[in-house]
Amino acid sequence: MKDFITIRIYFEYGQKIKTHSFWKKLYASDFSTELMKRAKAFGLHQVLHLNVNKGYLDNQKINWGVNEIRHFKHPHLIEIIDTELKINQFLQQEQSILAETNVILVKNEVLIK
Fold first, then answer.
1. Is 112 part of any domain?
2. Alpha helices in 1-113 (DSSP H)
3. pLDDT, tens digit, for every residue of 71-98?
4. Helix or strand or coil: residue 111?
5. 75 located within any domain
6. Radius of gyration of the chain from Cα atoms?
7. pLDDT digits over 21-72, tens only?
8. Can you point out the beta strands (E) in 1-113?
9. Domain count, the chain
């Protein structure tokens, strides 16, 4: 089995990709969908968009995810699993869209072999 690592990318629900044109920002997929499409095209092993019920980013107020319509500051996260080399290559390639996110390496531990 390959030596996989896990990273988590934290961002706000209303996050836009700054390099897109005005019209693309207006009509394009949301940030998480766009990032997942790019990760799939890059061939990453596993990518999950985890549903956050409540939380906060960077000392903001707590956002509660109980409404059908989420606040634009509501925290979201994507988890990526692959080899360290491949993830680093992906992060380098996508650094322009990830500039306003928090990318965190999650300590990996094997619990069961």
1. no
2. 22-27, 31-42, 84-93
3. 667 788 999 999 999 999 999 999 988 9
4. coil
5. yes
6. 15
7. 555 555 556 888 889 999 999 999 999 998 788 888 887 888 776 667 666 6
8. 4-12, 46-50, 54-55, 63-64, 75-83, 102-106
9. 1
